[in-house]
Amino acid sequence: MPHRSVTLSQFILQQEHQHPESSGEFTALLIDLALAAKMINREVTRAGLVDILGYSGTENVNCCCGIASGAAGRDEPGRAAAKAA
């Protein structure tokens, strides 16, 4: 017997139907969380595709802790080669 794929929303609704006493509030919350995750995934994917993530320089102007963001490994293209020279 072939395995049938079930989406998260389908699974949540199936589980809710097994519990007739449920109000549906938890189901609505889970479906909203799934939608939020999809929206975040779309934006992160889009950011990577159009290169709007930016790059890390040698100084993190948003951080007050003194840690340079260049340590994260996302330097401007070509910058690492210039540093090595």
Regions with pLDDT < 50 over 5+ consecutive residues?
A: 69-76
Order of helices and strands: HHH
Mean pLDDT: 74
Distance between the termini: 62 Å
Number of strands: 0
The share of residues in helices is 40-55%
What is the radius of gyration computed over CA atoms, rounded to a whole number of angstroms?
Answer: 22 Å
What is the overall silhouette?
flat
Largest sheet features: none
Strand content: under 5%
Put simply, the count of helices is 3
> Which structural class do the helices and strands define?
mainly alpha
Structure explained in plain terms:
By secondary structure, the protein is mostly helical. The chain has a domain at 8-14 and 24-75. Helices cover 49% and strands 0% of the residues. It contains three helices and no strands. The chain has helices at residues 8-17, 25-50, 79-84. Helix 1 packs antiparallel against helix 2 (25-50). The chain starts with 7 loop residues before the first helix and ends with a helix. The model is unreliable at 69-76 (pLDDT under 50).
Keywords:
0% strand; single chain; mainly alpha
List the helices and strands and how they pair.
Blueprint: H1 8-17, H2 25-50, H3 79-84
Briefly characterize the structure.
With 85 residues, the chain is mainly α. The protein has a domain at 8-14 and 24-75.
